Amino acid sequence: MAVLADKCKDILVTLVDIDKERIKAWNDKDLSKLPVFEPGLSEIIKRNRDKNLFFSCEIAKTIKEADMVFISVNTPTKRSGFGAGYASDLKWVESSARQVADYASGHTIVVEKSTVPVRTAELIQNILSESEDNSIISSNKKSFSVLSSPEFLAEGTAINDLENPDRVLIGGEDNDAIKSLSSIYERWIPANKILFTNVWSSELSKLTANAFLAQRLSSINAISALCEATGAEIKEVSNAIGADKRIGKKFLDAGPGFGGSCFQKDILNLVYLCRYYGLEKISNYWEQVLIVNNWQKERIASLVVEKLFGTVTNKKIALFGFSFKANTNDTRESPSISIAKDLLANGANLMIHDPQVLPSQIEKELSSQETKRFSDKKGGWCFNRDLNECVKDSDAIIFLTAWDEYKKLDFKKFSQLMRKPSWVFDTRKIISKNSLKGTGIKFWQVGMGNCNPL
Ligand code: UDX
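A: This is the predicted complex of the input protein with uridine-5'-diphosphate-xylopyranose.
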């Protein structure tokens, strides 16, 4: 919405949320306090806030005055009830649709932006139709058109993804509504990049795009393990396969397993959807992508234990990077969570560092684990912003997020601070073997089959 306001100065964009604290943070004069860390976002907010971009808790008034409403609420995986563990919880979509139904006036175009299971637009349409029928007898006559326009941006590169998207998708039946929405996107996106589909194709395309991307990662991570076992190099393999234009170079970096708010949730949704329609084998096929992803995270935690003489009890390990990828402070489904939990369960003392994630967020993510403090015998974790302090007296450093600041570290200095034998585990392929030369540090890297001594 911030990018939309930036590109269309004549359109008034108001973001509303039931969370007052969040709105307050979006309105904070100090731009470093915005709730989301995203490169380039604060500059856009600075340029447009209180001009044609507003953040407000006045939900009823904003809906009443709007010609177009984007529903962009979260749709987390259900924890209980039918479809628990797989299906998306649509309670926020439903409650937003009810608010739109209650407060809208005149004709309103409702755009479903949240990632949703196929046929959710129908749910929104049904709720809105009820209120259309009721409004016929009242003085405030209402009508609605529902469109689906899922978002494909990736965190960390969101602004560029929004300014130069590969494509924009609009699903719907009402031509006037479709034209209104596409005329907004056309202000900065070439018309040939705007694709029109029916509503369900649009909803399914979002789930499928994420499932294909995640499948690529599970494929390359599976091969990384085979490289380690055979002596092949994952980078050489990914370069070689990526040179085939049909496969392509992007999204082929082996890592500790994928995280983020979308991939797991959307595949679980797809699995649920296939099962619902009786496509059991297809559902198992997609679930395998998640099984391999969990396996990658577990095998990394277990090989760390194995290399440290089969036990990490009371050993100090520096864990570098807690966000699910670089350039974001988002920790949802981050591989660091399950790897940290596995090491804590084995008695390790973790010194956690991340340039953007707050310790309170880490506390929240690790809270199902007994998060004992550092001095406790059974292990625990601490957060420290000083890399040297994290490394001091540690047996190992594990790199879990590819932050730029981890790419130029002084391992000579680190080796003097660490306990011997010292280990570096690089799950992101950001550490060069050369930077460890002469330090005596032992090295493991994902997909590195060549274990020649340094
Ligand atoms: C993803 C989709 O890319 C985006 O189109 C969709 O709208 C939302 O979900 P996002 O979750 O923000 O975006 O991040 P993405 O860049 O896709 O990374 C997801 C995970 O895969 C991260 O944990 C990342 O580190 C990992 N990854 C990505 C790899 O391990 N290797 C790669 O080559 C690429």
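The longest helix spans residues 199-230. The pocket of uridine-5'-diphosphate-xylopyranose is lined by residues 151-155, 210, 213, 217, 251-253, 255, 258-260, 262-263, 324-325 (CB under 6 Å).
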